[in-house]
């Protein structure tokens, strides 16, 4: 999905866990990816190959750098939901990575 299409809808989600105020970010394009802006990380394969080959960052991180706060959907959770949220997110990322690897 190109950056222009991602701009049209709120594809970036900020997940805030309360009361600790821990934050996780995800972006939805073809799949849902975990992005970590503080370390310029994205769980997409584009990030992996571009970063590995020294070609910069993926389109998801480029988009994150271009948007403002009102373009991000905020979703609130309790701190008790943090571990299960991470578990499900990592499970989804792993499933997508395995599916992609097996299809190549």
Keyphrases for this structure?
104 residues; globular; 27% strand; 42% helix; 5-stranded mixed sheet; alpha+beta
What coarse outline follows from CA principal-axis ratios?
Answer: globular
Number of strand elements: 5
Oligomer state equals single chain
Structural class: alpha+beta
State the strand order across the main sheet: 4-3-2-1-5
Quote the average pLDDT. Answer: 82
**Gyration radius, in Å:** 14 Å
Structure description:
The chain is of the alpha+beta class and 104 residues long. It has one domain. It is 42% helix and 27% strand. The protein has 4 helices and 5 strands. Strands 4-3-2-1-5 form a 5-stranded mixed β-sheet, sandwiched between helices. A hairpin with a 4-residue loop joins strand 3 and strand 4. The longest helix has 22 residues, at 82-103. It starts with a helix and ends with a helix. The model has no long low-confidence stretch (mean pLDDT 82).
